[in-house]
């Protein structure tokens, strides 16, 4: 266990500045850890691991994903509902099961316009895993596809059941109640990272694949591993800094969700936005994990082994938090072998990702009730997997 010296003095002015620029807390925290000799090595390793194990694969996955869906039409759910209620709910669940929060936001918007039923809202929020799906697909593709399949099936069943209980326009807000405002984000800061990524992406992918296949870098020279770790750490710190400067992070939503629409629209900028967001939260969770283990002496894996029956419940409760940030932490804990698959599945079903923010803004009553409804299948699936597959 490492003991830390008392080194930080925070003035009232700096407290006010940080309270208005909450995103800057993460890069400042990282720089503080790098300045402490006892923490420098574990910080460098955590940053490098986050970049090579997550950021590179997430960027590649997002790039393929956004280019693939560019020409896919956004079908109106009202047309599908007229054809078949089952078709509407199934398609809503499919939109939710897709990585990211775009599909869920589409259904939320169409619900407020009278083009989708309340069951479609429950289906899409149940099926969606948000941006955490990109992280899981990039690092554990088999489990990622399995989670998407579970979300699709459970979301479809839940939506159909809800539509048998409630009318299709249940809790639909009036026009006067819809006051959601979409913020347009400047891309000036993000553009700085574009040439860096263009130069770094190919060699980074090569290194990331070599790491994934457990290649021994010492055969290329004694200092090769050190250089790679330093490069990965610098890239991760650069990405986190760009994310921190892209928005002041004054609100909870600006810290825990991906950035809003950019102007002019650009797939590359959107890929960078989402990659930076995922990286920032992965770095935060990696650093939290390392500090708890190396400083606090907490063995999270042992704790969850002893209290495994609580893991699905805790994960489901975390799923209630809006935004994808907290859910990325849960997925990171699964990737690191800390929590079981049952907890990951429960969180994936209960969490609504970034879609909960516009849902709360445009249809607050429907958002709250739909979120509560998603907790029921989340607990059933989470504890079903725990008792029948993990004990």
Terminal Cα span: 32 Å
Structural class: mainly alpha
The helix count comes to: 19
> Mean pLDDT score, rounded?
83
What is the succession of H and E elements?
HHHHHHHHHEHHHEHHHHHHH
Spatial shape: globular
Low-confidence stretches: 4-9, 180-185
Radius of gyration: 21 Å
Strand order of the largest sheet: 1-2
Q: Classify the helix fraction into a percent range.
A: over 70%
Largest sheet: 2 strands, parallel
Number of DSSP strand runs: 2
Q: What portion of residues belong to β-strands?
A: under 5%
Q: Topology, please?
A:
Elements: H1 12-20, H2 25-35, H3 37-68, H4 77-83, H5 85-97, H6 102-112, H7 118-127, H8 132-139, H9 141-165, E1 185-186, H10 188-212, H11 224-246, H12 252-256, E2 262-263, H13 267-294, H14 300-306, H15 311-319, H16 325-335, H17 341-350, H18 356-362, H19 364-390
Parallel strand pairs: 1-2
Q: Could you describe the 3D structure shown?
A:
This protein is mainly α. It has 19 helices and two strands. Strands 1-2 form a two-stranded parallel ribbon. The longest helix has 32 residues, at 37-68. The two termini are 32 Å apart. Mean pLDDT is 83; it is low at 4-9 and 180-185.
């Amino acid at each position: 266990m490492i003991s830390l010296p008392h080194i930080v003095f925070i003035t009232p002015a700096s407290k006010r500045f940080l309270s208005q620029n909450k995103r800057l807390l993460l890069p400042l925290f990282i720089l503080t850890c790098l300045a402490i000799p006892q923490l420098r090595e574990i910080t460098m390793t955590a940053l490098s691991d986050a970049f090579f194990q997550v950021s590179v694969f997430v960027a590649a996955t997002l790039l393929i994903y956004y280019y693939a869906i560019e020409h896919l039409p956004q079908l109106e759910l009202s047309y599908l509902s007229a054809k078949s209620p089952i078709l509407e709910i199934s398609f809503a669940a499919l939109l939710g099961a897709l990585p990211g929060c775009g599909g869920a936001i589409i259904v939320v918007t169409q619900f407020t316009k009278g083009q989708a039923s309340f069951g479609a809202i429950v289906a899409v929020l149940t099926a969606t895993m948000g941006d955490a799906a990109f992280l899981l697909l990039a690092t554990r593709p088999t489990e990622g596809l399995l989670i998407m399949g579970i979300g699709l099936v459970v979301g479809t069943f839940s939506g159909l059941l809800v539509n048998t209980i409630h009318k299709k326009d249940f809790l639909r807000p009036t026009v006067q109640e819809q006051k959601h405002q979409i913020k347009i984000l400047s891309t000036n800061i993000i553009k700085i990272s574009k040439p860096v990524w263009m130069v770094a992406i190919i060699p980074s992918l090569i290194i990331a694949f070599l790491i994934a296949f457990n290649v021994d870098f010492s055969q290329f020279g004694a200092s090769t591993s050190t250089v790679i770790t330093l490069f990965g750490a610098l890239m991760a710190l650069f990405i986190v800094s760009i994310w921190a400067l892209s928005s002041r992070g004054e609100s909870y939503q600006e810290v825990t969700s991906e950035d809003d629409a950019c102007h002019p629209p650009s797939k590359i900028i959107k890929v960078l936005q989402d990659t930076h967001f995922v990286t920032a939260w992965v770095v935060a969770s990696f650093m939290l994990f390392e500090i708890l283990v190396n400083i606090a002496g907490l063995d999270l894996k042992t704790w969850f082994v002893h209290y495994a029956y609580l893991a699905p419940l805790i994960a489901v409760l975390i799923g209630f938090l809006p935004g994808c940030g907290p859910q990325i932490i849960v997925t990171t804990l699964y990737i690191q072998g800390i929590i079981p698959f049952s907890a990951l599945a429960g969180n994936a079903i209960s969490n609504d990702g970034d879609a909960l923010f516009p849902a709360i803004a445009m249809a607050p009553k429907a958002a709250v009730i739909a979120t509560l409804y998603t907790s029921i299948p989340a607990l059933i699936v989470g504890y079903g997997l725990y008792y029948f597959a993990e004990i």
